[in-house]
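Example with several molecule types.
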Amino acid sequence: MAPVEDQPEDVLDSSLVDLNTFNQILEMDEPDDHEFSTSIVFGFFDQAEETFAAMDTALAEKNLEELSSLGHFLKGSSATIGLTKVRDGCEHIQRYGKLENIDGSSEPDEDLCLERLTKAIQTVKEDYKEVETVLRKYYEQFDS
Amino acid sequence: MSEILDLLPVPTLVVQPLGDSYRIQRASVGLLQAWDRTREDLVDKDLFVALYRGSKTARFDRIPLAYAIETAVATKALRLCHAAYVSGDDTWTARITPVHKEEDLSCLLLQWEKAELHVAVPDGGMSQSWLPIDDAFRILIHAVKDYAIFLLDTRGNIVTWNTGAELNKGYKKEEIIGKHFSVFYSEEDLQRGKPDGALERCLREGRVEDEGWRYRKDGSRFWANVVITAIYKNDIHVGFGKVTRNLNERKENELRLVAAYEESSRLKNDFLANISHEIRTPMHGMLSACSLLLDTELSEEQRETANLIDESGRVLLQVINDILDYSKLAAGRFSVQSDVVDIAGIIISVTRMVRTTLQPGVSMHLDLAPGLPKAMGDPIRYRQIAENIIGNAGKFTEKGSITVQVSVSAEDKTTHTLLTKVIDTGHGVPGDAAAKLFEPFTQLDTTYQKRRQGTGLGLSISKSLCELLGGDIGYERNPEGGGSIFWFSVKLDKVKKTTSTIPERGADEPSRSPSKGQGTDAGAQLNLLRGIARTKRILAVEDNIINQKVLVGMLHGFGFEDITVAGDGSQAVSILVSEGHVFDLIFMDISMPVMNGYEATVRIRSSGSRVPIIAMTAYALKGDREFCLEKGVDDYIAKPVNRQLLMQKLLRWLCHPDNPAHVNGNITEEAANDCPAISQELVQA
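Resulting structure tokens for the full complex:
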């Protein structure tokens, strides 16, 4: 319990995190602790790491369908927490995995989709790293 | 020289080998006179055709002579063939002399002598027969009633007939003596050459035994055991002995036994299936109640006891499910679905699950061959096999590692065969037990391991499932580390190339206006909701644990206490079945593994439940809403779930479950009691 808590908006870049959504999570915390939101956010970190690993495997196997479903899976939870960039990245993965362009039109070129997937996974990992660092930093202030 | 042969008074034939047959080269004048035949009739003709043409039993008649020639040639020695030719009432014995030029057979000399009358006449003049029968034996044999015992001459004509033969075959002695024994065979057996084959084999082997249908005089048939023995007198083949035993009774008993066994096996399986089903339903109820109990505040002792109930209940449920599967498989009532199987995805998911149960220090490796195909098969059954085999490896490996390998082992035009290998460094299977591994109800007991929980049906079920999926299953020792290698294969149909992607067009989300209705209205709504929340039960169906937690967190925030979470549609359906329809509202994620939200909704609706179902999905397809409604979903909320919107939906559906969209209608009394202070605007906000 730091005497003056940093507010999320002070630390979190709104291009990374949708503050309305993230605040919904924070509002579910008890007044004096952050147990609930911590479990959600850190639970998400674990889930994201696992999903990325699974994405790597699926990419190596060129398993587009699996990639699409993994993208969909992580999109759900990142959206719930409000991690906008990660969510968008996941949506791209979901679409490319379904042999679609970003706008939802179909893209029959499997190789092109794989190439896009490789890049999109790279990007989403970077975006995730960024927001993870910020969030960890945000939660560090409660650690003392 | 050749002329001398022609002029010989002794009945003589000179026969030349010609391929597989024998051609008559010369016939002596003595023979033409004795047999009253012309030279043209015989010379240059096939031996067997010339001798037996016109006989109804020609193909049997030739057997003794053909066999005698065969042995004469093979042994390069003289052979006698008794009764090789019949002319009028006389029978003639052939004396066969093979003539060799160096190693090659140049011709055969067949000299003929008249034999004594041998064919028994109906009055039973056995003493005239060549067949050696002692009087005492004849009396004994004649008296046997249970066996048909009779003699045949060299060509298969019946010579004697006992009481047993008369009783079993229905022919009187007078009408059968002299007839050919092939009358006892079916037309089909005759065409297949069964009786002649029997005689030929009998000559070669001395004896033949056979079981089959034989026909009586009245056309009825009986199942017979038949033994035919070749009879020789002074090394000359003189006939056959035939003993026929009626096995009808035994055969009928066998058939009755088989039918009784099948019936009892069917009854057993039906019983197992019914009883398992009946136990499963209350079992689900008990387990749900127990997990509710575990969610309450309990003393340590109580918690321990409740945990014990929970654990035992789960084991029992698994046992029941196994038995149910087993009895379905045994009864051949297991259906296999055809769907796209994502082998890699299933294996990843199963290993992820098993990983959580591994003992400390055990590692798990995944080795998926690159380019594993997506193919058509039954994903649920494949998963069931994988869970069993990989789960077993997890259970029985105390140190070391488990490796799961998947590869394509074969491929043809329409199918892939996928091989899954699970290699562990556990205790392995002792040699004598390996043979019984896949038999039902087998569990390995080892001194250093306590007996595992379960029925011992897992591997047997897996084996049957593999067979259903066109594959196989097996075990071998792990050459490294002394553990086990379990492998199984499944055959999957190739996917026909079609690209049917439904384009997702722009989002068509229902209005999301968190700002509207906030402030005092929102406060009033929240109070209203909190007032009714405690008494309501909610089922949240969602596969992503983060989303589960957040949704449950929000619902707790609204004052809901009774929230059940299901990880996929099929869990939701089974919870509803076991708990009865006690929920007031269901939140249903749409895209979930195993069973998606639409399918779950359809099942829930088809079970007759009218519980409000609110679909949740991360993206809205155009027409999604209509599709949802068509599937029986009542309403729809976009993800990420907005708390405000969620509150409104809850109010709307929990206060007016019967007519939520109603603006001016009458609130039913029940609903009014639930929400005493509700105002229409609030509900509609």
